[in-house]
Write a structure and sequence with these properties.
It is built from three helices and no strands. By secondary structure, the chain is an all-alpha fold.
Length: about 80
């Protein structure tokens, strides 16, 4: 079951990748890139559950923190 969820998340990430390339504004591209990051974060957590490795969860937490900070920096930079 986890494999199916991972496949759907990868498909949704590829659909969002189109929005990153063709986004009408910079903010649409930032939001799509953030959505891709969140989907990859979910995939990392699901892989941690699938392989029963806690280190994936730890890496996912650090990645989530970096993703949040990255979006704040981009919003600050492009918002001016």
């Amino acid at each position: 079951m986890i494999e199916v969820i991972i496949i759907f998340l990868l498909g949704a990430a590829f659909i969002n990748f189109y929005r990153v390339i063709k986004g009408p504004t910079v903010f649409d591209r930032i939001a799509a890139a953030d959505a891709i990051g969140i989907m990859l974060l979910l995939i990392l957590v699901l892989l941690g559950l699938y392989f029963e490795r806690e280190v994936f969860i730890d890496v996912a937490l650090v990645y989530a923190l970096l993703l949040f900070v990255d979006v704040l920096i981009m919003a600050r930079y492009f918002g001016e």
